[in-house]
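Long-time lurker, first post. I've been practising inverse folding by hand and with some scripts of my own, and I keep getting stuck on stretches where the structure tokens seem ambiguous. Below is the full token string for one chain I'm working on. Before anyone asks, I'm not after the true native sequence, just a reasonable design that respects the backbone. If someone could post their per-position residues I'd love to compare against what I wrote down in my notebook.
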């Protein structure tokens, strides 16, 4: 398959790249790569993709990019890049993430996640993924129902299954990511229910939603929200003991009410994808809807956290 890459040069590099990432997200590009001073993302070359890429490039310039590029490349080139840089990596005490093309001899207690990420985010090389896996290892998972909202390559959903989860439901706005995640579940011999769509509706209702849509209304916190006890939100159609969300900060803020409704009383919401300076806003949003912070961890400029309902 041929892909279109949209690149934006950001100089000076902003402290918070999430507004730029949001522009990619609005164009249907969930996964971006940051190689300072460039940030880039890819679209499959299908009818209408060229117009989408051009509109995105214009929006990036309007947002302050000093230069933009729109390039075409073959998927085979992408695969070769992964094979050069994606190597087996130990995460926490038990998880080992290894590419499907690399041999690995596990230790007796290892939980090995074998991946071929393709176009989907999530290899264990990024701090946000590692933080999620580390936090997942700290909460009760065995025999529980788990949801992974924004599943990318499926790495977290597979990890939950290897820890003994009873049922795992996973979703992503990117249909290609869901296809990759299904293949990775099969590769690891685990059963996971996957859905395409944004927000919590796909995992809560067990059906595909609208790809590329996280919901139009952004949660706006006022001063009155800070430090107050919210009224009880209605429970979702399906609830989970643990929900995983490795998504950018502004989407986590937007989805906080849905997350609270989807988590069973006493259950956990594990979040990541949070740039350090955005962490206070994510914490405020989560606590405003009724979550309590259990643990926050940081690696480099990235934050992951575990909240309890």
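-- Answer (accepted) --
I ran through it position by position. Result:
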């Amino acid at each position: 398959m041929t892909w279109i890459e949209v690149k934006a040069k950001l100089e000076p590099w902003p402290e918070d790249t999430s507004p730029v990432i949001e522009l990619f997200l609005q164009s249907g590009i969930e996964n971006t790569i940051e190689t300072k001073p460039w940030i880039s993302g890819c679209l499959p070359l299908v009818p209408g993709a060229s117009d989408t890429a051009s509109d995105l490039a214009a929006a990036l310039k309007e947002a302050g990019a000093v230069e933009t590029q729109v390039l075409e490349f073959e998927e085979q080139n992408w695969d070769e890049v992964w094979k050069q840089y994606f190597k087996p990596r130990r995460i926490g005490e038990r998880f080992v993430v290894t590419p499907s093309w690399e041999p690995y001899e596990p230790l007796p207690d290892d939980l090995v996640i074998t991946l071929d990420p393709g176009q989907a985010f999530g290899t264990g090389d990024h701090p946000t993924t590692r933080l999620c896996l580390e936090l997942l290892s700290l909460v009760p998972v065995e025999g529980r129902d788990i949801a992974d909202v924004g599943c990318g390559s499926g790495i977290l959903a597979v990890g939950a299954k290897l820890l003994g989860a009873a049922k795992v439901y996973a979703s992503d706005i990117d249909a290609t990511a869901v296809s990759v995640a299904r293949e990775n579940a099969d590769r690891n011999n685990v059963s996971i229910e996957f859905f395409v769509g944004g927000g919590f509706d796909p995992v809560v209702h067990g059906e595909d939603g609208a790809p590329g849509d996280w919901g139009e209304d952004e949660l706006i916190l006022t001063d009155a929200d800070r430090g107050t006890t919210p009224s009880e939100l209605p429970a979702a159609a399906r609830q989970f003991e643990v929900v995983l969300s490795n998504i950018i900060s502004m989407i986590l803020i937007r989805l906080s009410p849905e997350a609270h409704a989807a988590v069973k009383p006493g259950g956990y919401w594990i979040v990541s994808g949070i740039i350090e300076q955005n962490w206070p806003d994510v914490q405020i949003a989560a606590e405003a809807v009724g979550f309590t912070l259990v643990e926050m961890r940081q690696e480099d400029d990235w934050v992951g956290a575990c909240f309890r309902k």
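A couple of notes from the structure itself: Residues 39 and 121 are 15 Å apart (CA to CA). The two ends are 44 Å apart (CA to CA). Happy to go over any region you disagree with.
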